[in-house]
Fold this protein.
Amino acid sequence: MELIPALMIGLGLFLIYIIVIKNHKTFDDFRVPKNVIFALILIGVGGYLLFSSISSAVLMKKLIGLILTLLGFFLVFKFPYMNEYNRGFEVTGIFFGVIILIVGLIVLIF
């Protein structure tokens, strides 16, 4: 059931990419607005179908997993290189970052 909304969103984004970005030199003023509106309608209907079929608990769980994954990614890859501000905390930041990153990925995927 979640495949159809994902295909609609993907098709809408692909149409916008092809119409607006690829063909920016060959605009036809009559056809382009209709095609862009059709692509935006596809994205809107696909998003509505996708989010109406998912319960709010699952959506909240995925959002928390995404936030934890981003925080862990920051701690592992960006935090240790600020040596002038946090001397001695490089290893600690990487350690907590790896733990938060793994937990975030598990919550996000499962």
About this structure: The chain is about 75% helix and 0% strand. Residues 55-110 form one domain. Residues 32-53 form the longest helix (22 residues). The mean pLDDT is 84.
